[in-house]
Amino acid sequence: MKCKCGNEAVIYRAFEGRALCKRHFLESVDIRISRTIGQNRLIKRGEHIAVGVSGGKDSSLTLYQLKQLQPKFKLKISAILIDEGIKGYRDKTIKKARQLCKKLKVPLYIGSFKKEFDLSLDEMMKKAKAKRLKHPLNACTYCGVFRRHLLNKIARKIKADKLAIGHNLDDEAQSIMANWIRGDMLRAIRVGAKAYIVKDKILVPRIKPLRDVPEKETALYAILKGFDASFDECPYASESFRWEIRDMINDLEAKHSGTKFSIVKTFDRLQPSIRKMIKVEKLGKCKKCGEVSSQAECKVCLLREIIR
Ligand code: SF4
Ligand code: ZN
Questions:
Q1: Rounded to two decimals, what is the model's pTM?
Q2: With contact defined as beta carbons under 8 Å apart, do 111 and 80 qualify?
Q3: What is the rounded distance in angstroms from the CA atom of residue 175 to the CA atom of residue 242?
């Protein structure tokens, strides 16, 4: 298969009906990310952007892209890594994240579940299992809540204006479908290139520069650019609800190309109306820890109570 320029293609984009060579593929991903950043005004001149890194392909690409924009926008860039304590997985990816930050000359701040919550994720799961809870929660529920909390806390501590995360198109489509299926409208209004819509000085706004790039393409970009990124899957991933949704969407995409874009774009059109319907003017504070919360007690405190 050939690209429009006559060179050998590295990818066929079924949803666009065109093949692209290495140069044109990389260029098109760069353009798409710049467009996401520009159209959604994700960054402003002189801002301090903290990038959540993991050593994986998506966060490596996010950091790389923001580094490219650093001179133009006079950005200050830092990286934050959260060590959840997942044996045989996170220990490997941390090494890769350290190497990348060193190569790109970006300061790296590391937070750990063990230090912050006294237990690693592996230990939390052992404890939760031993308690034989009537409605056990899966690892991703604990991990997601604790990681978001810790990322925000570190970003705030280093005085970052924004927190960039490596969510790609597949992640966005999965979040949207998961929220529909669960009927979770509160979470639905937070989906988007700029994730937080409630302004609060203790919440660092989240941005997603890769939101319009399919996962297959973030992987190909990382390979073609020679990023030393991890492609490993977390051992807990297959237990999650998101995993089932991922399989379902991938099946649909294989049969009907463009499904992922369609899920995200349709939701984007509906979201303003959903936001009007579900008004969240101001969030309260958790009575235990003082963090932002829509309930009397925040999710971090509730989950810590379960595994105490
Ligand atoms: Fe955490 Fe689940 Fe992601 Fe693993 S797959 S890192 S447990 S959220
Ligand atoms: Zn709390």
A1: 0.93
A2: yes
A3: 8
Regarding the beta carbon of 252 and ligand 1, being less than 6 Å apart is answered no
The Å distance, Cα 77 to ligand 1 centre, comes to 25
Q: Which residues have a beta carbon within 5 Å of ligand 2, which is an ion?
A: 286, 288-289, 298, 301
Ligand 1 binding pocket includes 143 (Cβ within 6 Å): yes
Which residues 6+ apart lie within 8 Å of 286 measured at CB?
292, 293, 295, 296, 297, 298, 300, 301
Cβ–Cβ under 8 Å, residues 79 and 106: yes
The alpha carbon of 50 and the centre of ligand 1 are apart by a number of angstroms equal to 20
Q: Please tell me the distance between residue 168's alpha carbon and the centre of ligand 2 in angstroms.
A: 29
Q: Which numbered ligand comes closest to the C-alpha of 146?
A: 1
For ligand 2, the distance from its centroid to the CA atom of residue 287, given in whole angstroms, is: 7
The verdict on the CB of residue 69 being under 6 Å from ligand 1 is no
Residue 2 is given by DSSP the state B
Full pLDDT tens readout for the chain, 308 residues: 999 999 999 999 999 999 999 999 999 999 999 999 999 999 999 999 999 999 999 999 999 999 999 999 999 999 999 999 999 999 889 999 999 999 999 999 999 999 999 999 999 999 988 888 877 889 999 999 999 999 999 999 999 999 999 999 999 999 999 999 998 887 787 788 987 666 677 889 999 999 999 999 999 999 999 999 989 899 999 989 999 999 999 999 999 999 999 999 999 999 888 888 877 656 788 999 888 887 889 999 999 998 88
